[in-house]
Amino acid sequence: MKVINLKKCPSTQAYLTNLIAKFPKLISGPTLVTAKQQTSGFGRKGNDWEFFSGSLAMSFSLKKDDYEHLTPIAIGVYCAEFFKTKGISLTLKWPNDLLNENSQKVGGIICQQAGDFVVCGVGVNLNQKNIPWSSIELNDSPESLAEELYDFILNQNSDSKKIVKSWNGFCCHLNKNVRIIDANLTVNGKFIGIDFNGSAQIDNTLEIKTISSGSLFF
Hints:
Blueprint: E1 2-9, H1 12-22, E2 31-38, E3 56-63, H2 71-85, E4 91-93, E5 97-99, E6 105-114, E7 117-124, H3 142-154, H4 160-170, E8 177-182, E9 185-194, E10 200-203, E11 208-211, E12 215-217
């Protein structure tokens, strides 16, 4: 595992993606990037991710064919499982949010293809007070936590069936009425889980609708 700990950068996700694009021979194996300060973090669809000092900002590489279209789903499951070993209970919100037991957002996941790799970014608010978002309390340093989490992920080998089953088990809005909005499309109904493509399955009493992307509200 190659580890790059930065004092400051605009985005660990952009840093690692650019590194793979410019120096593909240098990044030939598992690579992790962390930052003590991130000034321009971003999430899905270009949404900003505000970084709070002392929180977790990390991006890492996975082989492109490890989980394919289920990569964000798998990373969500592994994050929830990893933090459980730390005594922290997280739940998952479709498609890529990490929530606490009270269904308050504490982190998120973003995945992008870069050459022969998928670059996965994980941001989690740690030990924060008086911020507009929720936070989790841990004594671990962000750098050591990032290495532990990445090592945990690298040592997983769950198949698609197990990943989907586990994700549905961690989902905080399973069997709840939700609304999914994607561009000009709005779908309302009961969220009954994800399928083997990671798409949302919505029961609107007339039919089961499959939604591959969008923002979910419940």
